[in-house]
Each structure stands twice: as C-alpha cells, then as structure tokens.
Amino acid sequence: MDDSSVSSKQPLFSRELEDEQDEYSFSPSTSDSSPTDPSPQRNSSAWDIQSSSSICSSPWTSSHMDHPYSYNGLMGSLVREEGHIYSLAAAGDLLFTGSDSKNIRVWKNQKEFSSFRSNSGLVKAIIIADQRIFSGHQDGKIRVWKKSGKDPSLYKRIGTLPTLKAKVKKSLKPSNYVEVKKSHNTIWIKHIDAISSLSLSEDKSILYSASWDKTIKVWRVVDSKCLESISAHDDAVNSVVAGFDGLVFSGSADGTVKVWRREMQGKGTKHYFSQTLLKQECAVTSLAVNTSSTVLYSGSSDGQVNFWERDKCLSHGGYFLGHKLAVLCLATSGNLVFSGSADTNICVWRREDRNHLCLSILSGHSGPVKCLAVETKDSPLTHYVVYSGSLDKSVKMWRVSGQDPNGTVPSQTSRAAPQRGNL
C-alpha cells in the first residue's frame, strides 16, 4: 500500500502511541504460574485428572484403544478452567494452545512444557515460523515470541506488530492515515479490530494477518515490516490462507471467497485482486489448502464445505455437508480433510479422486469446535493425531487411522455444486 494512497487526515500524535509502555516491557515466562497469573497451578483440582489415567503425572486424561492400529477416536482430553480455547498450533513434539485467558500454553508428550502470557488481548491465532511464534490477538496486535537459546522451555516476547518504531515513523506523515470510522483516523499499518487468522507464505518469508476490520495486512518476517494493507472485503475477514502459485485466499462474513495474486516488487510486495470464487448469503468462516497444494477448501456458517481444484484453474469442484451448524475450522493432512463445527463434532473426510467420503464423526466436545491442528505419524503404521480446541474450555487429542473402520457414512459424500450466486 503506497503512502500516497491513503487519507491525509491526521489525529493527535499521542493517540498512536498510547499503551506502548506495556507492549514493550518484555519478560520471559516459565511454565510455572506467576503471582500475576490467575490460572491454577499444574495438577490442581481445576484440571480434569483421573487417577486411573496412564498419564498419571499429566493433566490429560487418556482413553482406552481396543484396536490401536485401526482406531479412530479419542486418545486424551485436557480441561483447564482458564477460558475458551481459540487457537492451536502443532510443531514437532510441541503443541501450542491459546485461550481467552491471554495465556499460551506449550505441551510436550501431554505434559505442560512451558507457558507465556500477553498483557492484553485473547489469543485468536497462533502460527510458527522456524524459531519464531506469531500470535494474533483480540486487541488487533500480533505478538512475536522466540524460544530461549539456553533453555528451550523459556519463551520471550521479542516484539509486537506493528513495531513501535514503525508506528512513530508512519505517524509523522499525514498521508499515512486512513479513515477507519466516522471522524476517526489511524495509520494504515495498524489493525483496528480483532486478528482472526494468520498465514505464512510457502517460503515463510511473508506473514498475512486477517482482521475483523475488513483488511489483510502483509508483513515481512525478517524485519517485521508491514509491506501492504489490502482492503479485502465488505465485512469481517474470517480467514486468510497463502496458497499455491503466489495466490492468497480470503474468506469473509460478507459471504465471499476471494483470490489475490502476489507480485514481488523490489523488497516489497503488491497484491492484485484476481477473482471471486464464491458469493453467497451466509458467512465464510474458514479456509484451508491441502498439504499437496491441489485443493482449496472453504467452510461456511450453513455447515457446508466447498472446494476448488488447482488443476482445473480453480474451478468449483463441489461441496460436502456433514454438519448441522457452522464449520468454524478446517485442517488437512495427506488425503484427509478435518472439519470442526459449532455442532460440537469433527468430521473426518477422505478425498478419493474428486469425491470426499466421511470416514468418521468425532464426538466428545460439549461446545463449538473452534480450532484444529493435525500431525502425521508414520510409526508403526501411518496415522494422524488430531488436536481440537473448543469453547467448552477443553483440548482433545484424537487418533485417526485414515482407513475405513466401519464403512463410510453414505449420506455425507461430496456432491455437485448448488446454485448460489457467482461460483
């Protein structure tokens, strides 16, 4: 976004710098609860622990598996009374969980390995880029964390996006201000509403942040510089995914899925609108690209999942229906697709040619399933470990074999595309 392309209205300089002292008082966190942390100590009665659990020193409860190689179902469950679970990220043997308690917990082998805390803003999104962890928050800011080189269980906040230096620099020039509400202006590098989604480019050099302020912002990872702000939709942007062939996909409460084409310009970027894949009355709530980068999936508030195929120039491949309420999150691994819903269930789909068959419906949450993370395990046989976070304050761990244990659910297969606006 060029400096010259924004409004020349400028508010008082002090507005842009308020509350910055709190943002830059960094301190590393440990896995133990601090005096300022209202959450309970590990293994206290607030954790859902059963003495019969095989993981006796862990806050996770385990489930018995009669046939471990073909088992599709619950492996463990974690409940900690510190808020709804809004975000998950899995990296190697670590699981990161974010909640409205402002804490990010780190789990290793179903035991709490570490934790770190932001001073404001519940954790809406977590994404990992090598040694850096980016967290998107309700207050519209992105925090950047890094693991200690001396102690891998310690994490330190190393910055906030946009940086203080960038905000000071942009605040000095009137043309860097945009009108965000009637008679209210702010610099264009700032989100003014909640961060809803984060995504990294294929080479992890570019970070995308989607927000309820209707924009997508583009950040260069190496120096945390905001390169561009895209006025993407007419309503809140619920999801952004950096896909294949330099394309970026966005889904919004305005009912559309849009495609943006990225072009590198020197050290910066420029994104151009390419096409609208979907236009419907109900909100688009989630997006995902499969691991082989051949299919884009979109979940909606009506419970449907639409998909588009790369080898057919992003033509609409159809949709499949397995939920009664909104699809709030999607994840993929191999030829499997996982959809989590406000109906509290998780559907496991297997893609076969251009059809999607429902292998399992994972039930166990008592609240909407807000986020999913998937890991592939190759020993002794290939299977998947699925983590689900819910507004019931729990994280559950599921095993999915990828095989057909009891026959597919015949009524939940993919079908031809409905007539619904511009597809």
Walk me through what this model shows:
It is a single chain. With 423 residues, the protein is mainly beta. The chain contains 3 helices and 31 strands. A 5-stranded antiparallel sheet has the order 1-2-31-30-29, with no helix packed on it. Strands 3-4-5-6 form a 4-stranded antiparallel sheet, with no helix packed on it. Strand 9 and strand 10 form a beta hairpin. The radius of gyration is 22 Å and the shape is globular.
Oligomer: single chain
Distance between the termini: 29 Å
Strand content: over 45%
Gyration radius, in Å: 22 Å
Strand segment count: 31
Number of helices: 3
The helix content is under 10%
Task: Give me the side-by-side strand order of the main sheet.
Answer: 1-2-31-30-29
Looking at this protein, list some descriptive labels.
disordered C terminus; mainly beta; single chain; 5-stranded antiparallel β-sheet; globular; 423 residues; disordered N terminus; 31 strands
Short description:
It is built from three helices and 31 strands.
List the helices and strands and how they pair.
Elements: H1 13-17, H2 20-23, E1 61-62, E2 73-79, E3 85-91, E4 94-99, E5 103-108, E6 111-117, E7 123-129, E8 132-137, E9 142-147, E10 155-161, H3 164-171, E11 177-181, E12 184-187, E13 195-200, E14 206-211, E15 215-220, E16 225-231, E17 237-242, E18 247-252, E19 256-265, E20 268-279, E21 284-289, E22 295-300, E23 304-309, E24 315-321, E25 327-333, E26 336-341, E27 346-352, E28 355-362, E29 369-377, E30 383-390, E31 394-400
Antiparallel strand pairs: 1-2, 2-31, 3-4, 4-5, 5-6, 7-8, 8-9, 9-10, 11-12, 13-14, 14-15, 15-16, 17-18, 18-19, 19-20, 21-22, 22-23, 23-24, 25-26, 26-27, 27-28, 29-30, 30-31
